[in-house]
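Two proteins were folded this term; both appear here.
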Amino acid sequence: MDQSLTGRFIARKRKEKNLTQEQLAERIGVSNKTVSKWETGKSMPDYAVMKRLCKELQITVAELMDGEEKEEELHVCGEEQIMDLLRRVQELEQQRTMLYGIMLIVMGIALQAVAHTIGGSDMMDFLSGVLLGVSVGEMLVGAYVIGCRVILKQ
């Protein structure tokens, strides 16, 4: 699946329907900036709006994913199966991001524990302070990653 090819296909089909990005966006319930990102290949449509987009452009999900119209349709799997697959892929990507956030927090806690065991001389106290700062930074980044995922999911 080539995002730029799919984006050019969306732009071409939208123009064939004499729609602006804003008009298409209104009809499918997204922002015109989102449509612009699709058309420039910066992102792909979310599975939640893909059916509405395909219906509006009068194309199939397979055509959207391939970035071209099909003369003959060879159905290896149905549109529902494709949509389910896309939903699962997006859920896995969200879970991966959550795991990264959790890993950062756990690593931050581990560094904090190590920082508290080091000390005694000026150099060791300095190293302990650096580790403490890094651990707090890691935990904050982890919390931010998890928080962004939770907000985007809503």
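Next, the second protein.
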Amino acid sequence: MANTCTMNHLPLHDVFVKKGATFIPFASWEVPAYFTSIIDEHNVVRNKAGIFDISHMGVIEVEGSDAASYLQYLISNDMNTLHEGGALYTPLCNEAGGIIDDIFIYKISETKFFLIVNAVNHEKDFSWFASRCQRFSVELKNVSGTKALFALQGPLSPDIMKAAWDIDLLRMPYHSFITVSIDNSDVIIATTGYTGEIGCEIICMREKAVTLWNRLFDAGRSFGLQPIGFGARDTLRLEAGCLLYGNDMNDTTTPLEAGLGWTVKLEKDDFIGKAALVRQKKEGIGKQLIAFELIDRGVARHEYPILKNNIKIGEVTSGSLCPTMNKNMGFGYVDSSFAHQGEEIFIAVRKKLLKALIVKKPFYKRRKCGPAL
């Protein structure tokens, strides 16, 4: 029987085919894993600049007189800290405190916001939002697929944006955005990212994607700008201590367990999941996400057991070679009684037990490039 499953394509798919990309499936999308190699592309972002097509991400618009209070009720972070032109990272929790998704909220005005959500979750998230808006005066739109999203990341990103559109990223605060007109179309430039590097994310209408992409490459050619695949996106985010939904957190893990306690504002009025999180904080956390560095040679992969004294105490959630440090590192959940920096643990890799140490994350921190970032 023929395979009738149709994969979604990114706006730059045809461009990537011509560039010889190697593709993989991801959340119903066919995406480039790499163009040259994962390590080469990783190093390009760390040392020069790279650009990702991340148009697989979901985009949801929220508008109305109650938009701010509605979102405040849905999230664990505090909307009151969000100013116009600002972006807020937050978990979206269920009643048990489990993470439905981790999202970014962008504030256009007091009554208008847009959300960037994970590709695998955008339909689930939209249903969640829609089922909980009855007592609020809001209008929701799932505009996923109508937008193109690029991530320009790396130490030379400010030079490229300056050359392309005379935009000074170094004068923009971290987690802020501006709206500019390019080719008679509104384009959002946000100082957000998933690599640990300076850079920005660019949101435009899907039909403008190729034009904007080409303009960036024209401006970035002399700076060594290269397209980057999802393989390097994963190693970059791991080094930077960024979690991946579906691996490092899901609807059975809470923000307190995932090390995202800084996004949980228990002092604010009621929000979905608050009672469960208050209870968990009072009673104590049974498991905790840790970062580890392998001492023995090998790579720890998702769901590999973590042991102490030959007893399983948890599981790996993410693991990879981290090219910047040339070390194998990862994340995992362990019993909280063992979640201490410097603790020696073992990872079961096939039939071997590999020694590892619990360390502090992030594994990598970039050099500061400007006073505002």
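Residues 8-54+146-239 form a domain with the Gyrase A; domain 2 fold (CATH 3.30.1360.120). The chain has three domains: 8-54+146-239, 58-142, 286-359. These notes refer to the second protein only.
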